[in-house]
Specification:
The protein has a single domain, classed as Alpha-Beta Complex (Spore Coat Polysaccharide Biosynthesis Protein SpsA, Chain A). Helix content is 40%, strand content 19%. It has eleven helices and eight strands. Helix 9 (201-216) packs antiparallel against helix 10 (221-231) and helix 10 packs antiparallel against helix 11 (236-247). The longest helix is centred in the C-terminal third of the chain and has 16 residues, at 201-216. The chain is globular. The N and C termini lie far apart (38 Å).
């Protein structure tokens, strides 16, 4: 999309990426060549060929930044040219009506919006989590539902807090709730259940609920990160980020 006129640009879609090469073609295929939105992809240091693939995609604006979703999404927001931002995960499948739903919010003030949630794996707990996503409560929010926010409101609350290696999505939504009203669109975004399947659906659901509760109670970013790292202990990079944050 580089070089295209920005006169009609209303939306910047920001996508953090890290080692997502198998998912990139399917994700990018959801987007048409349009003047009213741009696609901003920020890689956090992939080693699986994602970077070389993204460099070849002429219809996106591609950047690299320090690893970590908060860092990557803040970097994408800083490069965005649209007055509205839509943050998405790369393993998301948008509903067919996504453009109409997004455009229904453009022009409104002090509004944030997200999709309802649906998983690509059938299980009672995943259905329960998806059902709860229709309610405008922080307890049922997450970055996998997408987040639409005005650039000015995003800036006013300070963007994503990079101290939150996990729960960065809950933290920014908590702050946005203080100045914006949440609209939950009546269509579901399909999210991958790969983390649930990998670690066990009941186990993962339980510990994600604990993380939500710990965040709600105001626990520190380092405590949340340590909890996540110990329960899903395949994240040496998370442990390294915790050390860096605590040494600052």
């Amino acid at each position: 999309m580089t070089g295209r006129s920005t006169n009609n640009l209303q939306l910047s879609i920001i996508v953090p990426v890290w080692n997502e090469r198998p998912n990139l073609p399917r994700f990018l295929s959801q987007f048409d060549r349009c003047d009213w939105y741009e696609l901003v992809v920020v890689d956090g240091g992939s080693t699986d060929g994602s970077q070389s693939y993204l460099e070849q995609q002429k219809e996106i604006r591609y950047y690299t930044s320090e690893k970590g979703r908060a860092n990557q999404m803040n970097h994408g927001a800083a490069k965005a040219r649209g007055p509205w931002l839509l943050f998405l995960h790369v393993d998301s499948k948008l509903p067919s009506t996504w453009q109409t739903l997004v455009q229904s919010c453009l022009g409104q003030q002090q509004v944030i919006a997200c999709f309802r949630l649906r998983f690509d794996h059938d299980h009672p707990l995943l259905r329960l989590a998806a059902y709860g996503s229709r309610w405008p409560s922080l307890w049922f929010r997450g970055g996998d539902q997408g987040l639409l926010v005005r650039q000015c409101d995003f800036t006013a609350v300070g963007g994503y807090d990079p101290n939150f290696v996990v729960c960065e999505d809950l933290e920014i939504i908590r702050r946005l709730f203080q100045v914006c009203t949440l609209v939950v669109w009546p269509a579901a975004l399909m999210s991958s259940a790969r983390k649930f399947v990998k670690h066990g659906i009941v186990y993962t659901h339980f510990h994600f609920r604990i993380l939500h509760a710990l965040h709600y109670l105001g626990c520190s970013p380092s405590l949340l990160s340590r909890y996540y790292s110990r329960r899903f202990g395949n994240s040496q990079s998370i442990a390294n980020q915790i050390i860096r944050r605590e040494n600052c």
